[in-house]
Design a protein that fits this description.
The longest helix is centred in the first third of the chain and has 5 residues, at 2-6. The strands form seven sheets. A four-stranded antiparallel sheet has the order 4-5-6-7, with no helix packed on it. Residues 1-5 have low confidence and may be disordered. It has one helix at residues 2-6, and strands at 10-15, 20-25, 30-36, 41-46, 52-57, 62-67, 77-78, 83-88, 94-99, 104-109, 115-120, 124-131, 137-144, 147-152, 157-163, 168-173, 179-184, 189-194, 199-205, 210-215, 221-226, 231-236, 241-247, 252-257, 263-268, 273-278, 283-289. It is mostly beta strands. It has a domain at 38-163: YVTN repeat-like/Quinoprotein amine dehydrogenase (Methylamine Dehydrogenase, Chain H).
Length: 300
Amino acid sequence: MAQAALAAPLAYVPNEKSGTVSVVDTATDTVLRSLAAGKRPRGIAAVPGGTRLFVTDAGSNTLLILDSAGGAVPAPLALGKSPEGVSVSPDGRYAAVAVEESNSVTLVDARSGARLADIPVQGRNPEHAVFSPDSRWLYVSAEEAEQVDVIDVEQRRQAGTVAVGLRPRGIGFSPDGSRAYIACELVNTVYVVDTATRSTLAKIPAGRNANGIAVHPSGKQVYVSNGTDGSVMLIDTATHTVSATVAVGKRPWNMALTPDGAKLYVANGRSNSVSVIDTAAARKVADIGVGELPWGVAIP
């Protein structure tokens, strides 16, 4: 039992062109196996501490629910056209899917897999819908927007907006939920937002085509992937400055940290690989070959 409790977590990588999810052992940084995942898996999210995975399949316009341990799962849930990012609420109750062509977010019961609501948003072609740490709010980014839309989860409606730069993409929160970090791709900037006032506190210059965001569990560092530069920048949250830049693969996209914050896993869409960054040393320690066109990473 003690050995199981200490086992390193698994990382799950959706490969859009291969129709699979690569299962990576974070202890050895090797691929253990692949899971079938529809036609074009994109977004992925994991239930905290569990084995259930939520995967958006853009090929069939569905939400797939997988169990990495082989347990029973609900049938795929039909969505609107071109589903993208998915997240699971920290309390484990909900999953939320950004659906591009319907300009909406689908809220799902994470246990039953049932649709709870389709919530319209102002931004066109939404890409990510990310829960706040207290599970009360969803922040939604969209390709054709200069704002992030804010959804009240219990009310199941849009409750406000946050003005940011052109084409907001990745979103992450500080552990206490007081700050949101938003990568804006077309202005190469990370916006730091006060979530209480929904106002901008800082604008941090990033690399070209800033995209993915990950926040260290300490809250002291934020990571942003730069698609055109093939790099990940480390941002010091105390000073709002870039403290290091790490070269990774081609077209780095979405990312995830291990629960202890020791390693960052970066999906390189055009290299068919995942780069592993040692966060303490701020250096790349491995490149893991996965399937074609990896879109992101989830680590329970």
